[in-house]
Design a protein that fits this description.
The structure holds three protein chains of three kinds. Chain A is of the alpha/beta class. Chain A is built from seven helices and twelve strands. Chain C has two domains: 2-117, Rossmann fold; 130-236, Rossmann fold (3-Layer(aba) Sandwich), CATH 3.40.50. The chains are: A alpha/beta, B alpha/beta, C alpha/beta. Bound molecules: iron/sulfur cluster. Chain A: Pfam families: LUD_dom.
């Protein structure tokens, strides 16, 4: 039954395309990336217009202080974090422990992760890439990097290493294409928003209500 | 079951009577158009981006069967499953089957026009599955028991007061403050996301070489629907595929600016298959449903196939004077506006009013706005030709006969001049006669002594004047 | 130079003053206008009903009438666009197609003729008015002659152009559309008129007779003291 539908559809499509189509009218190669260098100045300028806040750390120590200050300022009691080398580079686990934040260990996560994170204050992640042209955080799911971490808790802190800055989306897609795609790759530009009621713009519909980015200038 | 065809003329007259909805629609659409214009203006290379996107869409359509096979292989390799459906009905049954077999009771849905096309919510309800729309606009529409009026902003026609009343009735908690209302919806929907047995989303672009389902949104509800529940079902129509990530990049270069005036939406998600070995969340099962519903026949139609380039950005709706005035519901179809007027009559079911292609002022604002290079006026012209072939249009035939004979044509005009004062009266007593319809909002201009009878004397006089000047 | 006048049926029988002004403008531009006998209608109304079969005989008549013209000038963007479309109505191998192409290539909307063909933008016209330009979809988007209209009006002495809120917006006429869908047509033309009123103009100018008729007769129904003028009337100034 299922292959019957498939065969019928593909059969019709083959017949429809058999005669050949006129050649496309323009080259289909992607656009060259925009000019300029990918740096924190450009990235932060766009990012902060979209809702998230940004802070640049020049050393691992500064990054730890930034994270600790954020935890204190936002009354963070519980957190969940990704298993990611950039988090290790700033010993994020130690900072959380020192601040007496209860961190849910991966093995403590329930069978259904998202409901388990509903009451958690903060998710800490690092990015695969960050895009300067659009202020985007590119998050890649993997073992130890749950999709729910940057999505379900009320706050999200993302660490962005300087070496992960790229110019724009076409550059990122080209880079991503060199390896197998992760099960989920999320390119997030700003804080969730809607205009569905009378086109009035409202931020914080789903997902975290606030996003804070710490730039790692040495990494 | 015999269904009488939808009557756009009646439905639009009725819609135009609803002043409040019209005013809201106007304001909202004006707003989207300003945003779009601003973003397109800010991209000096938009025409080149557009040319590349058209080329990618055409390349895709030319090798569609091959790309769908590649897509299936890639999705399968990534742990997902691909299903084909010939009609909207079989697609809905198929989805209901997948969910029932797994005992799913609660489903969260991200906005998807394909799901509307399938009438999925009704089918799920019939088998006892609660399907909750999670896009805020779509959620409002669902709570109100209505249908979307725009392909991107489904609740474009609803006022905040109406939303406020609706929330009071449904949640016993309300406000007239829009951010606060959004908060109420967030709280209610969050429970659904966390408890859902499955998530159903649409698919803006499917990437064949990687098996990736790409979705764009601002709210984050699609990302949640594809990430939290243990089952993810993505719905697409078969033309939504592109070959490579690079091709996807070309389409992504124009889709957000044309749709909402953004460079990128807040959430651009690439879902590839099910959760991998060692991952603790993400769907354990991922299904991709590919719907035909008449599109393979459109591809076989060289005169009309370019409508399959459409990337559903909504730009043609936003600039169409008819859509802007009457709103989406008057069309009685899933897809309204210019793109809907072209594609609806070609889909297997719910073709709407057979005369829909005539409900057009020929202003060509749609083709000018379309980032996919679709020439709607030409396509509508072809559709009108096909409808006209099957009927006798007496007034047009008569007029054309007269126009072939200048003496008769002039004679008819002379008769018209004699009757001229009476025509006004005809309009008054027969407001539904063609003259009457024209004159409802217009003063009769009157027929004049023909120009050709004035020309000779005029030309002579002008010549003299000119000679005098020289 | 000589040019044949192509006078749309709407101008012939309802708006003859537009034909007169067109004649005057051409004479002023040093062109001798000829009016070939036996003109009726370009067939646009049938074309837009999807009846190319009914347009073909009219296209043949037209091509015969204008075959010998050095140039054909028409005070209507939509009728000019229709003639430009004639070749596409005949099969590739139909010998008539070539003749249709020749005639189509030398047929111009008035403003287009003055600017593109004669290279004239300043006709020395004077018109003391504050006016809004209604671009007309057929003249601008379909025919691509919008910039010629603008260039000509920019040189008219005494004319102050004020912008419309949505200058690109259709006036809602659409030929048979205004009869088949009177409510929608009314809604669209009312908005156009609202925009004109808000602009503060004393007159609205367009290069398209059907828009002119639509807007003028709807303004008359509302008793508005705003004039509706064809481009030719503005360029003719006191010339007639
Ligand atoms: S037809 Fe063009 S403008 Fe309309 S929705 Fe499709 S892509 Fe957008």
């Amino acid at each position: 039954m299922k292959t019957r539908a498939k065969n019928a559809i593909l059969g019709r499509l083959r017949a429809a395309t058999a005669a050949g189509f006129p050649r496309p009218s323009a080259p289909t190669i992607p656009r060259k990336p925009g000019g300029g260098v990918a740096d924190f100045e450009r990235f932060a300028a766009v990012l902060t217009t979209l809702g998230p806040t940004f802070e640049l750390a020049r050393t691992p120590e500064e990054a730890r202080q930034a994270l600790a200050a954020y935890l204190a300022a936002n009354d963070v009691k519980t957190a969940v974090r990704w298993d990611h080398p950039d988090l290790e580079a700033v010993s994020a686990a130690d900072v959380l422990a020192e601040a007496k934040v209860a961190v849910i260990a991966p093995e403590e996560l329930p069978e259904r992760v998202c409901p388990g994170l509903a009451a958690v204050d903060l998710g800490v992640t690092a990015v695969a890439y960050a895009l300067c042209a659009t202020g985007s955080l590119v998050l890649a799911a993997a073992p130890g990097r749950e999709r729910g971490t940057p999505l379900v808790p009320r706050l999200h802190v993302a660490l962005v290493a300087k070496s992960r800055l790229l110019l724009d989306l076409p550059t990122m897609l080209e880079r991503v294409g060199q390896d197998p795609m992760p099960s989920a790759l999320n390119c997030v530009s700003g804080v969730s928003s809607t205009g569905d009621i009378e086109f009035v713009y409202v931020r914080g519909v789903h997902g975290p209500l606030a996003v804070h980015v710490i730039g790692l200038d040495w990494l | 079951m015999t269904k009488t065809a939808h009557d756009f003329a009646k439905a639009s007259a009725k819609a135009l009577g609803d002043r409040q909805s019209r005013a809201i629609l106007h304001k909202a659409i004006g707003h989207i158009r300003v945003l779009r214009q601003r973003s397109v203006n800010a991209m000096p290379d938009f025409p080149e981006r557009q040319a590349r996107a058209v080329a990618v869409r055409d390349k895709t359509l030319a090798k569609l069967p091959e790309l769908l096979e590649t897509l299936e292989a890639s999705v399968t390799a990534a742990g997902g499953r691909v299903h084909y459906a010939e009609t909207a009905e079989t697609a809905a049954t198929l989805v209901a089957g997948i969910l029932s077999e797994r005992g799913a009771k609660l489903v969260v849905k991200g906005k998807s026009m394909v799901s509307e096309e399938m009438g999925l919510n009704e089918v799920l309800e019939a088998v006892g599955i609660e399907a909750v729309e999670t896009d805020l606009g779509e959620y409002i529409i669902q709570l109100a028991g209505q249908r979307p009026s725009h392909i991107l902003a489904p609740a474009l026609h609803v006022s905040k007061e109406q939303v406020s009343d609706l929330f009071a009735r449904k949640f016993g908690r309300t406000s007239t403050d829009i951010p606060e209302m959004t908060r109420i919806a967030r709280d209610s929907l969050r429970q659904k996301f966390l408890a859902a047995d499955a998530g159903i989303t649409g698919c803006n672009i499917a990437i064949a070489e990687t098996g990736t389902v790409t979705v764009l949104e601002n709210e984050g509800n699609i990302r949640l629907s594809g990430s939290c529940p243990p089952i993810h079902i993505a719905l697409m129509t078969l033309e939504k595929v592109v070959e490579t990530l690079a091709d996807a990049a070309v389409v992504l270069d124009i889709l957000p600016p044309a749709a909402t005036g953004q460079t990128l939406p807040v959430h651009l998600s690439f879902f590839t298959g099910a959760r991998r070995e060692g991952e603790r969340d993400g769907p354990k099962e991922m299904h991709l449903v590919i719907l035909d519903n008449g599109r393979s026949d459109i591809l076989a139609d060289p005169k009309l196939r370019s409508i399959l380039r459409c990337i559903r950005c909504g730009a043609c709706l936003n600039v169409c004077p008819v859509y802007q005035s009457v709103g989406g519901h008057a069309y009685g179809t899933v897809y309204p506006g210019p793109m809907g007027s072209v594609i609806s009559p070609l889909l297997n079911d719910n073709p709407g009013d057979p005369r829909q292609p005539f409900a057009c002022t020929h202003c060509a604002a749609c083709s000018e706005a379309c980032p996919a290079g679709i020439d709607h006026p030409a396509l509508l012209q072809e559709l009108r030709r096909r409808v006209s072939e099957t009927e006798t249009d007496l007034p047009v035939a008569a007029f054309s006969l007269l126009a072939r004979h200048p003496l008769l044509f002039g004679g008819a005009a002379a008769v018209g001049r004699l009757l001229d004062p009476k025509l006004r009266e005809v309009a008054a007593v027969a407001p539904d006669a063609p003259v009457g319809r024209f004159l409802r909002c217009r003063e009769f201009p009157g027929l004049a002594r023909p120009f050709s009878r004035r020309f000779k004397a005029l030309a002579r006089r002008l010549k003299r004047l000119q000679g005098g000047r020289a | 130079m000589e040019a044949f006048l192509f006078i749309p049926c709407l101008v012939e029988h309802v708006l003859p003053q537009v034909g007169e002004a067109t004649t005057a403008v051409l004479v002023r531009a040093g062109v001798t206008p000829t009016l070939p006998k036996g003109q009726t209608c370009c067939g646009q109304f049938a074309y837009k009903r999807g009846r190319a079969d009914l347009v073909r005989p009219l296209a043949r008549r037209f091509v015969e009438l204008f075959q010998d013209a050095p140039a054909v000038v028409c005070p209507s963007g939509s009728c000019t666009a229709m003639v430009r479309r004639y070749p596409s109505l005949f099969a590739e191998d139909d010998p008539f197609r070539e003749q249709a192409e020749e005639v189509a290539a030398k047929t111009f909307e008035l403003g287009q003729f003055l600017v593109e063909r004669l290279g004239m933008v300043d006709l020395g016209a004077r018109c003391d008015l504050t006016a809004a330009l209604h671009g007309s979809c057929q003249t601008t988007r379909v025919l691509g002659a919008g910039s010629a209209t603008e260039a000509l009006l920019a040189k008219v002495a005494g004319l102050t152009l004020v912008p419309l809120a949505r200058p690109e917006r259709c006036c809602g006429f659409g030929g048979a559309f205004s009869i088949d869908y009177p409510e929608a047509s009314e809604a669209i033309v009312s908005e156009k008129i609202d925009d004109i009123v808000v602009s503060g103009a004393d007159a609205v100018i367009t290069a398209e007779p059907s828009c002119l008729l639509n807007i003028a007769s709807a303004m008359a129904k509302r008793d508005l003291p705003i004039k509706a003028l064809h481009l030719a009337e503005v360029l003719a100034g006191e010339g007639i």
